[in-house]
Each structure stands twice: as structure tokens, then as C-alpha cells.
Amino acid sequence: MIDDSLLTPALQGVHLSRSFGEGETKTTVLYDVSIELFSGQITLLMGPSGSGKSTLLAILSGLLHPDSGTVMALGHDLWAMSDLERERFRLRHCGFIFQGYNLFNALTARQQLEMVLRWGEGASAGEARRRAEEMLDLLGLAKKAHLRPTELSGGEKQRVAIGRALIKEPNFCFADEPTSALDWKAGQQVIELLRSAAHDRGATVLVVAHDARIIEHVDRVVHMEDGRLWQQEEHEAREPVLHTLKQAR
User: Fold this and answer.
1) pTM of the model
2) Whole-number Å distance between alpha carbons of 231 and 152
3) Assign residue 169 a region: left if phi > 0, alpha if psi is -120 to 50, beta otherwise?
4) pLDDT tens string 50-72
5) How far apart are CA 117 and CA 132, in angstroms?
6) Helix residue ranges, H only, the chain
7) Termini Cα distance of the chain
8) Exposure of 38 by Cβ count < 10 A (0-12 exposed, 13-18 middle, 19+ buried)?
9) What structural domains and CATH numbers belong to the chain?
10) Is the per-residue pLDDT at 246 higher than 80?
């Protein structure tokens, strides 16, 4: 029997367009873009700076309203929802990894992760702490759990951000240049963790990146240029060579 999840997209953008500015300053960033993403796959979206990659990711994840087109996520029309409904959908189903980390300066690394579980899932304090410590250990940050962002390196902050995105085991994970602050060894480990979220837990993972070394670790590559998708490639991701992020210590 064929798994329906392999036939029905978990996330689908249809005829998406987006512009910024008005009049003579108006710039069109996306031109009638359609894309399908599936559960259990990690997809890499590549293209030069200014090609529209981050804009497309923001629209597909419910962070930026398109000028036209629809986004269907788990059978729901994302942009037909109210702002509150869409916020609740993101909180329940989505994990985000941003280039700028977006960590809270007043919180320790462990508290950054605990907050997601306490607020998003209603987990008890003990359960949230246990799961946060397990994730930080996996990320090679067990000894840094008590430190705040100002006391962490760029790579460590990025790993905390990745842990925060994955700890609630989201249906969707959106990663914008997740390896940009990391050396390749640590970056490779991060991609393996994202791939595990897809292959082992059935998440739909979309990664925006410039680094061509990521290609061999993903299932699918979509190329974008000048606001349009122009090539899509299916890949057979190679077997992981790094099984734990503890090696990044």
C-alpha cells in the first residue's frame, strides 16, 4: 500500500506573488510561484541573494501575507485564517530557525527551550526541564545550559535556536540559512538533525541556504532565481555520517 503522505503534499503554495513598495519604488519579489512539500522530506531551496527564497519561506510559514495565491498546510488554508488562528497554528505545528537566532537575552539556553514546551504544550516545569536538558545534551550544549546568549558563541546560539525549533517535534520546520554561523563540521551535524526530524519523525522540512555542500544531505533541491522556481531535483540523501551533535562540543 502506498503511503498517502507521499502523494498528498503537507504544505502547498499555489500561484504565490509578492511585491514590496508602491509606485515607482515597487519591486516584485515573487512571480506566480507554486510549490509542494511533503511529510518526511527535507527540501533545500537555493538561489542567489535577492532571488525571493526568504520571502517564499515567510509566506509558506504564515509569517508574511502574499499579494495573491494560497497556502494549504495540513489541509487548511493558512491565509484564510484569522491572525489569531494562524498564530495558534504556527505555535502548534511550526518550528523556525532564523539567521539572527531571535533568542531572549534574559533567558538561559535551557530556559529558551523550556519556554516553548511550557507555553506551547502546557508541559509541567519538570517535564520541560527534562526535555530541554536532553535536547541541549544532543546539541553538545549540556555544559552551557545555564548561560545566556551574550555568553555564547555565534555557533552555540545557532544550536540553541535549532534546539528550540525542534524540541516540540513540529509538523513543519522552516530553516533560513541554519548553517551560516557554523563551521562545516557543526553545519553538517545540524543538517543531519534536521533530516532526522523529517525521516524519523515525519516532519516537513524546508531549508533556505547558499551552501552547495548541503545538497547531498537532502531529499530534494529547488532552485530559485529572480522570483521564480526554475529547476527541481529529487535526491537520495546519503546515509548520515554523524549521528550525534555531542561531537560538536
Assistant:
1) 0.85
2) 39
3) left
4) 899 999 999 999 999 999 999 99
5) 9
6) 53-60, 83-93, 109-120, 125-138, 154-166, 184-199
7) 43
8) buried
9) 9-20+27-102+170-248 (3.40.50.300)
10) no
